[in-house]
Amino acid sequence: MITTTLFRQSILKTTRKKGFYKNVGVNIVMALFALYMLGSLLMLGFTLGPLLAELPVALDPVEILNGGFLYCILFALLMRYFIQPLNTVDLHVYQTLPIARKSLVNYLIYKPLINPVNYFWLVFLLPFAFKTVMPLYGSLATAGFIITGVTISMFDLQLASYLKRLFAGSLLKIIGLLVVIAAIICLEVFEIFSIAKLSTNYFTYAIQHPWTWIVQLALVIVPISLQYNYFKNNYYIDAYMKKDVTKVDKLQSFSFLERFGRIGEIVALELKLLMRHKRTKSLIWMCFVYVFFGFLFFTDIQTDAIKVMGAILIVGLMALSYGQWVFSWNSSHFDALLAKNITARDLVLANYLLMLAFTVIPFVLSLFYIFIFDNVFPYLLIAFLYTAGFVIPLLIYFATFNTKRIDLNNKSALNYQGTTMKNFLVVLPVMFVPMILHPILSVLGTGTSFFWIVGGLGIVGVLLSPLFINICVKQFNKRKYKMADGFREVE
Amino acid sequence: MIQINSLVKEYSGIVVLNIPELTIPQGESFGLVGNNGAGKTTLFRLILDLTAPFTGDILIDGLTVARHEEWKNITASFLDESFLIDFYTPEEYFVFVGKLYGRAKEEIDEFLLEMEELFNGEIMGKKKLIREYSKGNQKKIGIAAALLGKPKILILDEPFTALDPTSQIRLKRILNDYRKKENMTMLISSHDLNHITDVCSRIVILEKGRLVRDIETAGDSLELLKELESYFNV
Predict the structure, then answer these.
(1) Distance CA A284, CA A268 (A)
(2) How far is A96 from chain B (nearest CA, A)?
(3) DSSP secondary-structure letter at A463?
(4) What does the pLDDT look like over A359-401, one tens digit per residue?
(5) Residue A138 region, left (φ>0) first, then alpha (ψ -120 to 50), else beta?
């Protein structure tokens, strides 16, 4: 009874959320994409059997696929861990109501099991079962194959939920998990122990012997009972509310920015914001990782167009990942920025300069590639000019359309709140324009004309930046009420 | 001086605020009372250009707030926690706000010493971020930061709620002193009729977005209180 009420309320929570109907367009695009994925999986289910049969190995298609099952379990576990949202209730709302603790816990644990989305890989497994397993192993094994598929989903689902609750977004523990999985893969690669062989032997036996199905189902109970145990110890809300007391002495103050007046204060504000929240801090460190993309993109085997894209990613990703939400980062104190003695121009200019710095830093860092690969400097230079001249103002302009609140005090290390497809749809084309221009311009002119034209455009963009900033200020003033309204909406 | 002309605010077709005309002269202590949903916070947000009016406009010293930014220089406010920067320490926040309003470091330090009475030793030097303070102490930080700007116009939404009785009394004293010293216009909303009559000489009652009563007495707070109580005692 109470479980169905909770279930209904969770649906209401989604459909009554502000912006649920506003994003219909985006939702339709996502739905089409999901349909395409499901269609592809379905096709794969029908065609994979015959394809595997042609492989020059001694195993039959079912054995080959079974060999992948243990890896599927690991891979799906990771995917679920990172992508699947945890099933939660606003515990403090229900805790004081006369609802048995057990019902709440049951709801938290079992709800994902009835969500059909969690069994999507059956779209692939079912056709494979009937087309390939049936003729080779008969109908009992076909049933076993399907049951195994379902059990694997359930097991992963529950284990991912348990690990997610246990790790509570701690980055270190996630890395630990990744290391364990990497170690397992290493065992295979260095031929110390073959998981694939084990997987083949076990699952090929298992699908034909019903007693193993029961054992597998029993294994699903392990993560479930672990979760029961977890909730026994972590039921009360204050355990979650425990705040990490920040060590203030260790915080950076960026006091060198003070002498740049109001603009400097705002830049310092944004930098402190970035460095004092988990989510934004990891965003900054990621950007140093991006610099190493060069070893992938600048090697001699890559085409010139790929090198252009690589250079733009290296130089531009830092500005991009900050700039998409340049105003949303300030959600929790946006009213302060509007009502205190800060003009719209101060705000836009400060963020423009900060993003410029975020372009200069990876550009300078990536200059070492000059000593490693031939002829890489022109790519980096035009990527820098293009990002500085066009991408930054465009990012600021389009950031005004993001009205979803980002709550940086949300503790998860993988908090993607505020993310909408809109951003990517708008921003990605901008990043890829030079890559598309490259082949066109190389056909029309000589090999170097591309660099002159895009580089020249970039310089023009930089020179026009006062104009672009004016446009952004106007746009900001037009959109600020919408942003302020949206940012006030606490989810 | 604040001037409001034919101001209407609608939320999805429902009028939440409708003020044909209202003038608040420089140096006035203006109190805003009204039951929940009367439009007090909305009016403050409109004055601070945090939300756009449906029709009409608001002028501060003759300039529309929506199209000019000069008013920001002379206006300070604290409506809710979104006026704080919660990952700053109070010290950092005061310096940040002080700098925005052109205060020198020494002036800020001097001001914070004056505020120590209100802070009651619970704010400064705690080595904590603002988000780790209690609601009441956050409110003190926000109000003090607003006063730090030496504003000609001060706007506070429910400044007395969440404060302990001692702090409420001290805050009233501080507000009265500052208003007299700087000839500051003060706009305060409150549910507490006792407090608001202590700090405001003019009180406007809002009801469902309309201005229903505009009471002014030359400093006689008891008479004011009596009139307010008779209004709300339905």
Answers:
(1) 15
(2) 23
(3) H
(4) 999 999 999 888 888 888 989 999 999 999 988 998 999 889 8
(5) left
Residue position matching structure tokens 């914001």: A273
**Between chains, do A249 and B127 touch, taking CB under 8 Å as contact?**
yes
Helices (H) and strands (E) in chain A, counts: 23, 0
How far apart, in whole angstroms, are the C-alpha atoms of residue A417 and residue A257?
A: 30
Residue A323 makes CB contacts below 8 A (sequence gap 6+) with A351, A355, A358, A391, A392, A395, A396, A399
| CA-closest candidate to residue A350, choices A271, A436, A444 | A271
Q: How many CB atoms lie within 10 A of CB A414?
A: 14
Closest chain B residue to the Cα of A340, Cα to Cα? B72
Longest dimension (CA), chain A: 79
Could you give the angle at the alpha carbon of A96 between the alpha carbons of A407 and A100, nearest 5°?
A: 110
Q: What is the DSSP string of B23-34?
A: EE-TT-EEEEE-
Contact present, A421 and A433 (Cβ < 8 Å):
no
- Confidence band (pLDDT; 50, 70, 90) for A44? confident
Nearest-CB residue to A333 (from B49, B85, B92): B85
What does the alpha-carbon distance between residue A112 and residue A115 come to, in Å, rounded to a whole number?
A: 5
For the four alpha carbons of A178, A183, A189 and A195, in that order, the dihedral sign comes to: negative
What b/e sequence results for A192-210 when a residue is b if at least 16 CB atoms lie within 10 Å of its CB, and e otherwise?
Answer: eeebeeebbeebbebbeee
**Which of chain A's residues have a Cβ under 8 Å away from the Cβ of B101?**
341
The interface predicted TM-score of the complex, written ipTM, equals 0.90
CA dihedral A432, A434, A439, A444 (to 10 degrees): 150
The beta-carbon neighbor of B100 closest among A273, A338, A342 is A342
Alpha-carbon span A450 to A318, nearest angstrom:
25
The alpha-carbon gap from B233 to the nearest alpha carbon of chain A, in Å, equals 34
Q: Number of CB pairs < 8 Å for A and B? A: 86
Instruction: Give the span between the Cα atoms of B159 and B46, in whole angstroms.
Output: 18
Nearest to A307 by CA among A374, A360, A362, A361: A374
pLDDT tens by residue, A434-485: 877 777 777 776 667 888 888 888 899 999 999 999 999 999 999 999 999 9
Residue in A447, A394, A398 with CA at minimum distance from that of residue A422: A398
Q: CA B34, CA B16: separation in Å to the nearest integer? A: 13
Closest alpha carbon to B146 in B191, B180, B103:
B103
Q: How many residues does chain B have?
A: 234
Residues A255 and A193: beta-carbon distance below 8 Å: no
Min Cα distance B113 → chain A (Å) is 22
A248 in Cβ contact with B129 (< 8 Å): yes
Contact map slice: B 22-51 vs A, CB within 8 A: 48-51
For residue A332, which residues of chain B lie inside 8 Å, CB to CB?
81-82, 86
Dihedral sign (CA B57, B59, B63, B66): negative
Q: How far apart are CA A363 and CA A319, in angstroms?
A: 11
All residues of chain B having their beta carbon less than 8 Å from the beta carbon of residue A258 are: 99
